[in-house]
Every structure is written in structure tokens, then in C-alpha cells.
Design a protein that fits this description.
Layout (H helix, E strand, L loop, with lengths): L28 E5 L4 H11 L3 E3 L3 H4 L4 E5 L2 E7 L12 E3 L3 H10 L5 E2 L6 E7 L5 E7 L4
Parallel strand pairs: 1-4, 5-8
Antiparallel strand pairs: 2-3, 3-4, 6-7, 7-8
């Protein structure tokens, strides 16, 4: 397990409207997992996807779950007592070399369902080892 405790930089952009605030991107996305499923998460997010597991702060580690980071994306997997996999709701994860990721997922037994209904992007859906829906997409290159 990595003990990557690097701090996040402030990615916010100057405000350009009358709201007085701006959005700077997502810090992380959280998905629910059932109690005791951390090893399944490590197998999928760490081994299959190649993300680095982060050390959770002790007060949060006591709750269970695990966190991963890779390529500027952070995924928090939190324990939910009455867990039900997210079959429709999902994170949309931007990927470079989408076809390579699809091959890797398939080689590890994960079905990849391609969907060409998002203009300007190639994309597919897959599910983690707990049944949570994930969308992976890559902008199409100009012809």
C-alpha cells in the first residue's frame, strides 16, 4: 500500500460571472462498497486499473473503505452498510488510450460495452467487482 499523502493544488479558475465563485474540477468521486470489500477494491482499482492506494487519515480509516489515485483522478470507496451497486449513476472517467484500457479490463474478465452516443468521444461502460457502473471516455482526435 502506498502512503502517498501529496497535497492537492488549487485548480480553481478566476470568476468570470456575478456569482463570486468558480469551480475547479472534482477533488474526488466516491462510490459505495459493502462492508469487508476492500480487498475486491484493491484487486480492481489497484491491480487491474493500476491506481495507487492512498493512506486514509486515521479518523477516516476507522470507517473502512479505501482510496485510490491515478492520473489526477482520486476515487474514494466508502463502506455503506446497506450497499446497493450503482447500476445507472456513474463517474465519467477521461482516459488516454481508451482501447488499451478496454483490452486490459477484458483480459481481467471485465465486460466492456462500447457506446457511440456521446458526440466527440469514444466511450465504453464497465463495472467494478462490486457491480458499480463506470464510464470511461476519450475525446476523438480531429480527422
Amino acid at each position: 500500500m502506498s502512503t502517498d499523502n501529496t497535497q492537492h493544488t488549487d485548480n480553481t479558475q478566476p470568476t468570470d460571472n456575478a456569482t463570486g465563485y468558480s469551480f475547479g474540477g472534482l477533488h474526488h468521486v466516491q462510490l459505495a462498497i459493502p462492508p469487508g470489500a476492500e480487498d475486491l477494491c484493491r484487486a480492481f482499482w489497484g491491480e487491474v486499473l493500476g491506481m495507487t492506494e492512498l493512506q486514509k487519515p486515521p479518523v477516516l480509516a476507522a470507517r473502512g473503505g479505501c482510496w485510490f489515485r491515478g492520473g489526477g483522478l482520486e476515487v474514494h470507496l466508502g463502506v455503506e452498510k446497506d450497499f446497493r451497486a450503482a447500476a445507472k449513476a456513474h463517474p465519467g472517467i477521461l482516459v488516454g488510450s481508451l482501447a488499451d484500457l478496454a483490452k486490459r479490463l477484458e483480459s481481467h474478465g471485465h465486460e466492456v460495452v462500447w457506446d457511440d452516443n456521446f458526440p466527440g468521444h469514444d466511450r465504453f461502460y464497465a463495472f467494478d467487482k462490486l457491480g458499480n457502473r463506470l464510464e470511461f471516455l476519450e475525446p476523438k482526435r480531429a480527422a
